[in-house]
Amino acid sequence: MPQARRSPLPPGSTIGVFGSGQLGRMLAMEARRMGYRLHTYSPESNSPTGQIADLESAAAYDDRAAVRAFAKGVDALTFEFENVPSLVAEIAAEEGVPVRPSGTILHAAQNRRREKSMLRQAGLPVTPFHFVKNASELEEAVQEIGCPAILKTAAFGYDGKGQTRIEHGVSLSSAWQLLGGQPCVLEAHVDFERELSMVAARGVYGDFAAYPLVENRHVNHILDTTIAPAEVEPTVAVEAERLARRLCEHLDLVGVLCIEFFLLPKSRVDGDEQSSGSAATGRLLINEIAPRPHNSGHWTIEGAVTSQFEQQLRTVSGLAPGSTEILRPVAMLNLLGDLWHNGEPDWQALLTVPGAKLHLYGKHEPRPGRKMGHLTVTAETTEAALETGLAARAALRRQ
Ligand code: AMP
């Protein structure tokens, strides 16, 4: 039966999620609230998702028998990270269980080359790039693209892992070796004004809903803070939503998707482009996409009518997306394992800050750079929310 003809899954149905990190955990919390059952599947046990889910299956992603048994026990399947082998989507299809978003989307998002080619094909603006398979192709690509540039592994990169910057005079063979001599994408380094992102959702009947555009700051290539809404000219927000809608339609997405953008300074965009479209045309480049809830959408839990995790649950269940209206200006700040450097953070100090909402992911080992939790602050303005959030986070650190 085509997916669009199935009736929505009511509360009481079971959603299966591949992956067991914090994104699955926050999905499981929404599932519990709304009376759905959630099963998680990953190689881990006592995982962030498994601590909340109704059932946790711990087995390898390529364990056919285990994946099949898991698929038989659920009404719909989704994933909370992209690097799940496409085998899982094949088995789900054999078992007649809908996978939302589809295995095709998962496949495209697993690899920077496929992702960028898909974006180009959809007529969406991406950072100039070249695909490189060996060190000599890297040399040619650097000549074409120029320096500085960023070399990124085509597969399995996140949070700045699997990336290296190429400056004039660096040894290209060392850069190639540093990333393990595997297929890569060489991207022009973008002198962006700001980094922005937008989370959007699309239901089985094609109903589309986008959250307001947000602004992200990264530290060491890892998301540090998000403020919502982004303070940008209205034309930029309208253009971002147009691009998000076009992408969701091109992919025939059923689920949630995040697009990360680089906003170019006005001066970088030539006059022709600006006069032929809106003032924002040509100012937004897509850095990457994720066909799932995203760290830059965590603010929606306290800051929007419908959280991005409820949105995932709704769309995966065949329901229409809920309202994406923002309730108040909001700031989200990540809590990385580095905060544990001198012992357990001072939770008391954080919890005395009115309006600061703590989220911890139930991870056992606080390693540097590891996302252990986040905090959210809502306020009259995004500046006030961020200021309070930064002070609350600083108070956590033991001296
Ligand atoms: P990514 O894993 O590709 O999202 O990269 C992580 C972060 O590195 C981005 O959010 C940017 O801050 C930075 N970055 C990645 N690619 C580029 C680029 N082509 N130009 C400038 N900065 C970049």
Automatic annotation (TrEMBL):
InterPro entries: ATP-grasp (IPR011761), ATP-grasp_carboxylate-amine (IPR003135), ATP_grasp_subdomain_1 (IPR013815), D-isomer_DH_CS1 (IPR029752), PreATP-grasp_dom_sf (IPR016185), PurK (IPR005875), PurK_C (IPR040686), PurT/PurK_preATP-grasp (IPR054350). Homodimer. Pathway: Purine metabolism; IMP biosynthesis via de novo pathway; 5-amino-1-(5-phospho-D-ribosyl)imidazole-4-carboxylate from 5-amino-1-(5-phospho-D-ribosyl)imidazole (N5-CAIR route): step 1/2. GO terms for biological process: 'de novo' IMP biosynthetic process. Residues 116-317 form the ATP-grasp domain. Keywords: ATP-binding, Ligase, Nucleotide-binding, Purine biosynthesis. One of its GO terms (cellular component) is cytosol. It is an enzyme of class 6 (ligase). Gene3D superfamilies: 3.40.50.20, ATP-grasp fold, A domain (3.30.1490.20), ATP-grasp fold, B domain (3.30.470.20). It comes from Caldilineaceae bacterium SB0661_bin_32. This is N5-carboxyaminoimidazole ribonucleotide synthase. GO terms for molecular function: 5-(carboxyamino)imidazole ribonucleotide synthase activity; ATP binding; metal ion binding; phosphoribosylaminoimidazole carboxylase activity. Its EC number is 6.3.4.18. The lineage of its organism: Bacteria, Bacillati, Chloroflexota, Caldilineae, Caldilineales. Transmembrane segments: none annotated. Catalyzes the ATP-dependent conversion of 5-aminoimidazole ribonucleotide (AIR) and HCO(3)(-) to N5-carboxyaminoimidazole ribonucleotide (N5-CAIR). The gene is purK.
